[in-house]
């Protein structure tokens, strides 16, 4: 089963997505997600200029060999552009293999290990009443676990907080009446935000105390510190949130320094999640072997596809570490579908992030996964269960968009 063609498809149904479509000589097609938020065209060029020519004529069934060929063959290994490109090829080949087998993809990964994937949604609000409304809306939609992000007194905009309901101007997800937060803005240069760590550390524990008082002790609550703290600040935050029993505290320190998590771990029993900016199993070695984290955040889209992420999860399982796959709208429905097939099959599933795509995005991809009673269920059709509508795509051409940058109050650049 030889690969006849591979096309790099870039479309922007409210936000930019990069998709790889591989077609075999028999006419079987497979899709892979290669979306790298804010740097989309770098991956599109890597695929079109450097990988597509290598794919033509290769055996579409040889997934592992193709993965090794592209990873080792590049010589310049790892990094988000390379690994998103490999992920797209890998996912598209799994899609093809499952279609040829006539089975939903998860059946090729060992079959079903659970009824569905527990997901968490994003609730946010500048002030507590708006946050409560957002949490209630998510509960009414069926969510059974909630990420909580709030405004901070003195800061005009904060990571993870939707500016307002129906806030369409300047946001990438269009006019949907939702509280969901989309940080990438369509602008020539990134928007600049301001940050005050001390104000954040003073404010956050009171928010979680208020949410626990309002919604009770049972609801799983998550929080993302978005890589902004020093190790001792992160330790202080984890300790101060312990009374509110978080499901996890995410991205407390910049992810490059794995040893930073050692300091955090010494001081708090709040579970830690990290890895959405990691690309390979090597990025986790120290964190796993020293048991410094509890959940793995890498998405299929950025970690070398189903093959790459499955290997990371198996390694994590040795240390009782579970999955917590990144899944906001900066991975396409193709990437999310791959995560759902993987999550239903692996033994050490933890939770799946699920921030619903816009109607325009779903019209383009028509994903077959379903959300009910707080869980995602995989499509039962052969393959990934996602399609790509070229007519819809043509109506949504690429538009440059950037994630914000972040400065401290004195103007110094800080981690966004
Ligand atoms: Mg995060």
UniProtKB/TrEMBL annotation:
SMART domains for this protein: MR_MLE
Superkingdom as given in the UniProt entry: Bacteria
Pfam families xref list: MR_MLE_C, MR_MLE_N
PANTHER family, A to Z: D-GALACTONATE DEHYDRATASE-RELATED, STARVATION-SENSING PROTEIN RSPA
Classification via InterPro entries: D-mannonate_dehydratase-like (IPR034589), DgoD-like (IPR034593), Enolase-like_C_sf (IPR036849), Enolase-like_N (IPR029017), Enolase_C-like (IPR029065), Mandelate_racemase_C (IPR013342), Mandelate_racemase_N_dom (IPR013341)
Transmembrane stretches, start-end: none
Signal peptide residue numbers: none
Protein name: D-galactonate dehydratase family protein
Native source organism of the sequence: Herbiconiux moechotypicola
Domain Mandelate racemase/muconate lactonizing enzyme C-terminal: 128-271
């Amino acid at each position: 089963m030889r690969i006849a063609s591979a096309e790099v498809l870039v479309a922007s149904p409210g936000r930019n997505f990069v998709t790889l479509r591989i077609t075999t000589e028999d006419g079987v097609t497979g899709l892979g997600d290669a979306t790298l938020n804010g740097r989309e065209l770098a991956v599109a060029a890597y695929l079109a200029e450097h990988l597509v020519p290598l794919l033509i004529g290769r055996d579409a069934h040889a997934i592992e060999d193709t993965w090794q060929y592209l990873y080792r063959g590049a010589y310049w290994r790892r990094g988000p552009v390379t690994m998103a490109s490999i992920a797209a090829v890998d996912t598209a080949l799994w899609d093809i293999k499952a279609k040829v087998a006539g089975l939903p993809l998860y059946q090729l990964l060992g079959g079903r290990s659970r009824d569905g994937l527990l997901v968490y949604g994003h609730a946010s609000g500048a002030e507590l009443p708006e946050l409560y409304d957002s949490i209630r809306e998510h509960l009414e939609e069926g969510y059974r676990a909630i990420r909580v992000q709030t405004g901070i007194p003195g800061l005009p905009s904060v990571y993870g907080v939707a500016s307002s309901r129906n806030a369409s101007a300047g946001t990438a997800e269009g006019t949907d009446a939702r509280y969901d937060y989309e940080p990438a803005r369509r602008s020539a240069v990134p928007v600049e935000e301001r940050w005050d760590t001390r104000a954040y550390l003073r404010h956050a524990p009171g928010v979680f105390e208020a949410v626990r008082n309002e919604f009770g002790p049972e609801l799983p609550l998550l929080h993302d510190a978005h890589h902004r703290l020093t190790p001792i600040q992160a330790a202080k935050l984890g300790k101060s949130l312990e009374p509110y029993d978080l499901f996890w505290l995410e991205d407390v320190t910049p992810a490059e320094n794995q040893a930073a998590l050692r300091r955090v771990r010494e001081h708090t029993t709040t579970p830690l999640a990290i890895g959405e900016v990691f690309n390979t199993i090597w990025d986790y070695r120290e964190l796993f072997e020293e048991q410094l984290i509890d959940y793995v955040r890498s998405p299929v889209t950025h970690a070398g596809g189903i093959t790459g992420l499955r290997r990371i999860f198996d390694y994590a399982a040795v240390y009782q570490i579970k999955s917590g796959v990144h899944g906001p709208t900066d991975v396409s429905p193709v990437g999310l579908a791959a995560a759902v097939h993987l999550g239903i099959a692996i033994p050490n599933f933890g939770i799946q992030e699920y921030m619903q795509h816009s109607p325009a995005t779903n019209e383009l991809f028509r994903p077959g996964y379903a959300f009910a009673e707080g869980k995602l269920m995989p499509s039962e059709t052969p393959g990934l269960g996602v399609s790509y509508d070229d007519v819809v795509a043509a109506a949504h051409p690429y538009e440059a968009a950037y994630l914000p940058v972040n400065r401290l109050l004195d103007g110094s650049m800080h981690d966004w």
